[in-house]
Structures
1.
Amino acid sequence: MTAITPTIPLDAPGKHHGFLRLPHSRNDSAWGSVMIPLTVIRGGDGPTALLTGGNHGDEYEGPLALQQLAWELEPAQVMGRVIILPAMNAPAVAAGTRVSPVDGVNMNRAFPGRADGTVTQKIADYLATVLVPAADVVLDYHSGGKTLDFLPYAAAHYLDDADQQAACVAAMRAFGAPWSMMMREIDAVGMFDTTVEQQGKVFVTTELGGGGTATAASVAIALRGARNVLRHAGILSGPVEGAAAGRMLDMPDDACFHFAPQGGLIHPLVDLGEAVAEGQPLACIWPADRTGVAPVTVHANRPGLLAARHFPGLVQTGDCLAVVAVAVD
Amino acid sequence: MTAITPTIPLDAPGKHHGFLRLPHSRNDSAWGSVMIPLTVIRGGDGPTALLTGGNHGDEYEGPLALQQLAWELEPAQVMGRVIILPAMNAPAVAAGTRVSPVDGVNMNRAFPGRADGTVTQKIADYLATVLVPAADVVLDYHSGGKTLDFLPYAAAHYLDDADQQAACVAAMRAFGAPWSMMMREIDAVGMFDTTVEQQGKVFVTTELGGGGTATAASVAIALRGARNVLRHAGILSGPVEGAAAGRMLDMPDDACFHFAPQGGLIHPLVDLGEAVAEGQPLACIWPADRTGVAPVTVHANRPGLLAARHFPGLVQTGDCLAVVAVAVD
Amino acid sequence: MTAITPTIPLDAPGKHHGFLRLPHSRNDSAWGSVMIPLTVIRGGDGPTALLTGGNHGDEYEGPLALQQLAWELEPAQVMGRVIILPAMNAPAVAAGTRVSPVDGVNMNRAFPGRADGTVTQKIADYLATVLVPAADVVLDYHSGGKTLDFLPYAAAHYLDDADQQAACVAAMRAFGAPWSMMMREIDAVGMFDTTVEQQGKVFVTTELGGGGTATAASVAIALRGARNVLRHAGILSGPVEGAAAGRMLDMPDDACFHFAPQGGLIHPLVDLGEAVAEGQPLACIWPADRTGVAPVTVHANRPGLLAARHFPGLVQTGDCLAVVAVAVD
Amino acid sequence: MTAITPTIPLDAPGKHHGFLRLPHSRNDSAWGSVMIPLTVIRGGDGPTALLTGGNHGDEYEGPLALQQLAWELEPAQVMGRVIILPAMNAPAVAAGTRVSPVDGVNMNRAFPGRADGTVTQKIADYLATVLVPAADVVLDYHSGGKTLDFLPYAAAHYLDDADQQAACVAAMRAFGAPWSMMMREIDAVGMFDTTVEQQGKVFVTTELGGGGTATAASVAIALRGARNVLRHAGILSGPVEGAAAGRMLDMPDDACFHFAPQGGLIHPLVDLGEAVAEGQPLACIWPADRTGVAPVTVHANRPGLLAARHFPGLVQTGDCLAVVAVAVD
Amino acid sequence: MTAITPTIPLDAPGKHHGFLRLPHSRNDSAWGSVMIPLTVIRGGDGPTALLTGGNHGDEYEGPLALQQLAWELEPAQVMGRVIILPAMNAPAVAAGTRVSPVDGVNMNRAFPGRADGTVTQKIADYLATVLVPAADVVLDYHSGGKTLDFLPYAAAHYLDDADQQAACVAAMRAFGAPWSMMMREIDAVGMFDTTVEQQGKVFVTTELGGGGTATAASVAIALRGARNVLRHAGILSGPVEGAAAGRMLDMPDDACFHFAPQGGLIHPLVDLGEAVAEGQPLACIWPADRTGVAPVTVHANRPGLLAARHFPGLVQTGDCLAVVAVAVD
Amino acid sequence: MTAITPTIPLDAPGKHHGFLRLPHSRNDSAWGSVMIPLTVIRGGDGPTALLTGGNHGDEYEGPLALQQLAWELEPAQVMGRVIILPAMNAPAVAAGTRVSPVDGVNMNRAFPGRADGTVTQKIADYLATVLVPAADVVLDYHSGGKTLDFLPYAAAHYLDDADQQAACVAAMRAFGAPWSMMMREIDAVGMFDTTVEQQGKVFVTTELGGGGTATAASVAIALRGARNVLRHAGILSGPVEGAAAGRMLDMPDDACFHFAPQGGLIHPLVDLGEAVAEGQPLACIWPADRTGVAPVTVHANRPGLLAARHFPGLVQTGDCLAVVAVAVD
């Protein structure tokens, strides 16, 4: 049984700001807690949307858009309920790190969680057993974090249930990101996505930039996307805005992914969104500690456009250096 | 007297790759060394250029352009001598950090250094007493590093000696960055810039992006800039390329700088290069750990355009959040 | 099967000082061991008492009283056997931390342990499978540690078996602390207490101060308590001393617990043992990093007296700030 | 020249809350600042009092009393000026550590500081060259911090200038702590006290408890003391309260200090304020890692009362274990 | 199912150098990998040998001999296949530590591993389920690492299957180390050895020195041993070299092992390979922090010769200080 | 003026064990001390010898021999005085590290120290101003520590004063190590050696093995050496033992030193004491993270014998890999 208790009601009318409180005994506070910020806004009858950010603690578009939404959305505007967690993995968000500093766990590989597990597993369990079952639509924000950078896209998964897939695709298109992507996860074990989809919910996720920062442009995409998904679900009134302009991306096979054959300083030769021919040099890698050594060049395995890249100037052997995707419309 | 010895001759004809070797006794190597990579290329008669990167270890345009230059430049092309240090502060470059992990010292506040000081001070001393005196022109690359992001510009300082200043400005314009900036340092004590200028040299510095990454575009600016400065100095033949298109920036007063009044998540409202009106909101700051709290908004102290910004999604009280500069041409 | 071996016999007559030795391979000693100090004193026929301290490594009354007892108690005084572990979680005691520095595990949530688990789980397993089964009476010392401070009390649990509960209560009253407390654990999973009680033993635990220190007064309470429990069990001869003066405390419901609504500097307004009216301010919280901000005041949820408090001057959101208990006699 | 700038005027009428801002370039913020909270309250004509806390970052009575004072004191009540710095060593206060986590420097051995030194030295320099010269009376709060515990006392130093000493003693007595102490520092080099006294100011300091916590009682002493000193200086109106009851302490010689002859667990045999005879056992030290070893006993070098003690349960060889002082009235 | 993929074919003719790639998402590379170096050499028909080093990351004879072998061995020399992993636990080898810095796991207690476990468990699983099943002979190198020092020996285990044991003994003797040892593991759970033997393979392991270094002599033993085992298996042609001179060691019982009764500085009185009489002093332990204390002397439990010893100058209570073995031929 | 006080008299007859006590305020003990163990043995009239070990904290022959000597030497045997500091840099010895963990300072580059400096500088100052002036003969033990390994030798320096040099050489020969070495320091600034020699004292130093361990053989050399030096000085009676067998080594020029041209795993091809021809391969360096790359071979710059080597299996670019010395007798 979960040890987490919300400090506010989850289903009362009106707007409440509070926390999920998880007791956590540690050296610097024997009777301490992990506090996960939470806002619930309930208006008239209608479906429930669960909006989450901070699954990884160094991705900022989601937390920013959700803080704004939690601040400005009023019960009178809402037909149904909006549950907002801008910092699902609160310890990671506080630290600005991908994985939780408490237990070293990557939250997006910790689902469905364990009620008697580590802090991250306990949070995952609460989401999987309490919040997701209560939701009709779930929007989980991701960006590249400190070490990856992406073209901004919303995404849906290929699912066995065609109706569910169609509903997810419709919500993804409604989000209205500049790019949309259909994804087939190779290793979906432990993902929040999988947990939500297995409960039959409509699920949208995103990658909206990266580098451990956010821009005015990227936050605007995130905020418009949340409003659009709520409009699409009938929770907010009014038409979806600006979704028509989005383009579809595809990552058809493993050849999309390019790994660093050795470590060093990355010298990029192509920027995000630029077209790439098969065999074209994508980047060189120079040693960081000596001159006079020929760089190692990484060539494109396939044609397409650069959709994601390793962000930091230093790279290690085996890091994913570049993703070449295909624009399909 | 310096403890540093170069492993290659500094003035022999031809092209040599090696190191500055600085003995450094430490727990994991009693008779270890700090090794600073070095390339010297000497052709026919002519002046000496000293090209440096990695003054701060998380700024990548300089190291990448200088690795490329050290690799491709041949003595036959050179009228004079080119001394290249792509990683001045080699321990910081290896670690990807602004300051040296060995002594915690910010190299650009360590000049003119000390022969009997810490590792960073010893490197500064060697530059100030051996390499800078041997040079006619010095180009030192900077970018924003992991925590700042800049419009790409080359810069020169206001100097007491009008002739020297004119020579520096000419070299800065020759560099050919998209932007150029005249700077008046408030606190020039300890800077490499000051040490070089006080020895009467022609000096150019840069800020070419940031975030602890580099892009194909930013490295191209850096590389073209180095070639242009060498052409301008007569060390490489051929005309300076593309310098005409650059624009001039100015930071006329302290009102350009905007500091975070509290810590939290930064929600940027303006992006780099965008025009800003006086009083316009530049960014909001939300708490990272709770919802339902009004954001703190930072407004522009003056009109202009956004020339630099805090990069990470998390900000602390007192961090410089934004710099609003003025385009002067 | 346990990897732990005692270096002394557990049941030989006389007095033996030694260790539980647990092999532990680590970077700084491939064939190292965790050594848990142990004294066994066996005299004439009689029951076995197991006395434990250092379950949390920053709580000092237990380890001090048990060192004294292990030093002074002679077989001729003992009718039965006394097994003393003043530092159950020896790595935590050596480090002065609540949880083990070896594996980060809170020993009092690690029972009944695992023979193939982490270091703390292996110690718990040895206690649960070897030492507790051999005991008739178990006394486990706790105090507040570095982050909590308590009125000094001995405690027993509400148990399903009325006879066992009565035996525990009698032993608790015999301990003779200034306060005694009946506890109903909400989350008893993993506690040493639960493991002992489930084996049908007489169990007494304590909270005897806190702050990561001990005083002459608090150690005297602890030492008298151990002697009293041994007298009560018939292992030492002579009457129980000073138990009559103790008072009963109760924590009837969740309203006893007060959590910090935000982090900062705690300004306590009530001290331990003082009476509290419902709604009375218990403490203010000031920001640690700025002036001119109104403090947040925490008011008492219920009347009673202050029985426990957060000890360090800094507090974080969600820390238990104060416990208001009720004196029931 | 100092790099510190106040964000508020230091001498304008009214009440202003702000910061001393010290630029501090570091890996996680290239253009960051250390922000030292500051309140200035200026009313009618009169002297200037400088009230400081957080010289050591783990001592809480000063910061708490000064936050309260900064919040509640109004210009209309003030004849002169009150400058309040509740967290002089702001990085240490934020971390809850004695010395600054930025440079490892103990602020109270860093005076008179250096304008071109480390962060702590720069703060010391600003105090020594700007704030202290502007003050007539200086009150600097200390307590025992996380590792010492004191009887609560205010203190003044034996000074060469008899008039200055008398003024300081009068202010100390006005403070009204339960105890007062005349101190002769053996090693006064680097202390804030010395810097203030050498400028001819009236100076009062304190030790008001310890352990890294504060109590309702100890904060009340601190707050009353500040108000009393301001009344004594004529800055607040009304009589000094409760000062008559205080008693005088003396530490006449080095025999007052008792050092741990070996490390281990401290078993205290006397508590703060209790009378001590010469040769009386003050504490035992037991090993933390084994039983069956005789404790080492520390005996009193002289008669008196226990005025200070090592606080944590673990002690190391050479730690000051106990201070036996003499009550002189 | 394993997440590990080899970057080269495991069964193609010829010689291939590459990696086992294990995706590993971490704070400094969201899409990073653990890369385990791998060479496969396949010539004519014949058996498969799996040669592994770096099971512990601070043991060097194996990685050095296997690098040499991977470099010099050509397919034309090989009848069958040689699979070489000089750094099984690649993160530990990179860090020079016994256990993996990624998860703190001792690889030689992690078998048979878990496909959904930690990084070390995933590598163990891949070995247990893919590489070991494909092998006929397995040679796994060990040395003492940074904290132990051994006489150089190859070893085989007592096994239930007499034929398998005989085959292992023959391979051990063929290895040709100066010493050979028959081992009976007390606690074989989790060892690579056990996993290999349970699959019915011929298995040889070694201890070839220690201290976290290698010598010309010890690497020569390791390299000759690998060649000899391959010759013995018929994979290389030519006779086994120098195996006749080896001597047999035995560790008949627990009395072989001598543990440190307290911590301090070790003063060895016998060196590796020297004869020892029962009761002879093996070493003294002096305190590291004071003089004038009698040393604690450790005496031999049994006669024999010193076969292994604690290497670092500092020892902790419970560390294995010395192993006295018996030469049996 | 020094803050250090000895806890025992430095010149009283008899034998005293105690400490040099240096007050050191730190986060975990506000009134703590650094305690440097000290033994003084004074018998009849005669000179004073100062014997020191633990200048670097990971070198064990000196501390072990000096503990033994401090334990066994009796005043009746001593004509004069013997001052023994087995752990000069006590914090480094406690941590087993070359440099002090308190301030990161290498003690043997900290002389003559500073009375107002860091902990290591204060200890150096005390030695330079109190203990060395009181001595006639000084013996300072060194070994290779954790990262170097040496042939065992005693050493003296070439000095300007021929008489002083002759006295030092005579004492060095008396020490009776297997090897003796005349040294000409390139960079003698900050060394204890220099401080002692500049005060005109007879000085002997050593290098007696390495790797952060000691052997029965190496401690025996150290202990015999100390006794021999004391006999040679007339402080102990009886003849010097075994000194005749020693051989002389020389390191005539910089060509003796061989540095690693790149990092990786060291494959040694020559062992300590073996003869080396000019151009002979001394060691190879393999990458630690991949196979299939040719090793880098380091060849001997000059003929001689291998006198010292890098000890750990991993090496970094610029580490001293090998020292080839010349046997001169």
Note: Residues 152 and 208 of chain D are 4 Å apart (CA to CA).
2.
Amino acid sequence: MRQSQLFTKTAKEPPKDEFSFNAQILIRAGFIDKLFAGVYTILPLGFKVLKKIENIIREEINNIGGQEIYMPALHPIANYKKTGRDKIDVLYYTKLKNGSELVLGQSHEEIIVPLMQKFILSYKDLPKMVYQFQTKFRNELRAKSGILRGREFSMKDLYSFHKNEEDLNEYYKMAQKAYFKIFKRCGLLDLTYLTYASGGTFSKFSHEYQTITEAGEDLIYICDKCEIAINKKIIKEQSACPFCQNKKLREAKAIEVGNIFKLGNRFSHPFGFQYTAEDGSKKDVVMGCYGIGLGRTMGAITEVHHDKNGIIWPEEVAPFVASLLKIKSKNAMPAGRQEKVKNIDKISDKIYTDLQDNGVEVLYDDRDVSVGEKFADADLIGCPYRIVVSAKTLMKNCVEVKRRGSDKEELININEIINKISNY
Amino acid sequence: MRQSQLFTKTAKEPPKDEFSFNAQILIRAGFIDKLFAGVYTILPLGFKVLKKIENIIREEINNIGGQEIYMPALHPIANYKKTGRDKIDVLYYTKLKNGSELVLGQSHEEIIVPLMQKFILSYKDLPKMVYQFQTKFRNELRAKSGILRGREFSMKDLYSFHKNEEDLNEYYKMAQKAYFKIFKRCGLLDLTYLTYASGGTFSKFSHEYQTITEAGEDLIYICDKCEIAINKKIIKEQSACPFCQNKKLREAKAIEVGNIFKLGNRFSHPFGFQYTAEDGSKKDVVMGCYGIGLGRTMGAITEVHHDKNGIIWPEEVAPFVASLLKIKSKNAMPAGRQEKVKNIDKISDKIYTDLQDNGVEVLYDDRDVSVGEKFADADLIGCPYRIVVSAKTLMKNCVEVKRRGSDKEELININEIINKISNY
């Protein structure tokens, strides 16, 4: 994309009413815009990142048998009365013209259970795994963590349906592996721990995926022997790892980037969602649920991957693979360079087109702004590679390539750029 | 996809509380599920269709310079007070915990104007075109037209921003062409007319894209000379075409599948959204807006493309290109056929894998159900091609291929299927 066409602009300062680092830097770089606390518009650069995160999740969830659907955001309150969640803290309430009371979906158990009840009748119909990407509405009293805790946010929610606990446990393990693959591809694996948290009625533990960062709202204790963590909410500070009895637990602040629950019959039972078993008896369907917030994942990536100049996107979730900077210095220069400057537009345009034709996504800074502004914006936006075309590099028939976050610049012959960038 | 894995099932009868043909057939075939009147869950088959419609629209809108974003559904009512739309008929109202009043987005002018106001300062920043796919919430008193008029539905809304009316007019023409491309690719072009409708304060006319079908809620008059139509709301029954004075207008019921408006400064003015012109003066930004409902487009396609047995999907929006039916007849058969039956699982699986490996999307009916049920479901679901593998076809080393909606069946050698299907 030509940066001259992009409607957003970067800002030197974050808005004064934004206190979280993730939202500050994403707003400054033009990835998101704040409508009000906890509610953000996703701008073109942010949209590209979220779509990449979404597609990574989609691939990995499809790989473990997920079938994608799209459920409504308007929910009849009657469904919530069945599960006793009609007065939970985070609901938004609204009404149809005919007076029917509705809530906005804060999760979708109350919708997917009566839906699946229409199709799952027998043990032959199990197991089934169904997911969606859909907006969740949560009426948080305070929303001070930027896109880490929104009052409206996109989430992937997967629900699994099983004959019994054994079958759920087997799938639950597959989901755990898929989640690690997702966080690996999002560049979060090294700092993300499977974390034991409070389990509810059916299971002793639920599991969170906690990414270590100072911005985290949660406190976890990491057992480096088991390579797992325990949420502070379920452990005393001085106690040992419940699995290996290791007493040297490491405390850290962390962001919950995903969570998975064994629901058992917590939601199937209130709806009378049963199947006919092999022996003809009726049994409650056993459920699991598996969530990942998209905006929260994007926010966690910025908290973890940045330096003082801006974001450093992991390659698979970067808005573009490379920033291509056309530098037309206005300083006095030797005659040879002046000759090169004449062709710089044509050569830069050709490099841009060639890269795109070869499947390399490029943000082409063709703007008529200062050299300093181009370099600063490339660092702030944070694409993995910066390619500079200037009279100086063209004197050697080269461009200058730098990995974002590294100090090393490399001159590469303009005929070899495609090959180099594609194989970095 | 293996149909044995698909969690939905077809139904012989539509639900009793569903009166519109589009929803009846989409529910029977397992594309959508009704949560309550005007609010539907999109099931896996429907999801595939909607994603294809979405991607067609995305491609064509990107081609006319659209930049994709994603705006929130929760809107501060304060923004609506500025434009005087805080009491319009279709709003849902809700509240934050701190008492702040919100409405659910029924359209996004009140959000995109203050957003663009942050980035568009000068004539140099214009024109800009920005769009999204986002849920719209409209509190309709009645919702009896299935997915043609939802109380919650996905829509593509594009907004364009210009220096003056001339520039808007130029872009408006490009958008008109893009819309016809979209409806062509969705299989609706032949029955869709650019229709003149009421224009509001800024412009004499707005334009609707009306698709002729008996299920339509609108009445239009078609001028076959100009190849346009006029909405009944702005014309007297007996009057002539306002462009060529042709008096032989053809009356038809139609569905509004898209609409485009010249908004002028209707929304920019209340927000004081101005730009600095070439001469240094401040001028109101001139706007256009352009909508297409995704579910409504899917519904219109089913109203237009079906027979008594089911839907007939146009190829570019079909959930799968082909249904592959494995037929294991249990009837008595000659010895040669019995031999073939032994290999039918293996051969069918191979055809399925080969088709997929060659980029042909296939719904593989590998279920253990009757032959009649397989044929009926294939017709009901309505993929463009039906490929039958049976002992009878395998005797000739062939499969039987039929175009949905045609009577002609063709025997094709199993080594030539890929080639044939890819080049149909």
Note: The domain at 320-422 of chain B is CATH 3.40.50.800 (Rossmann fold).
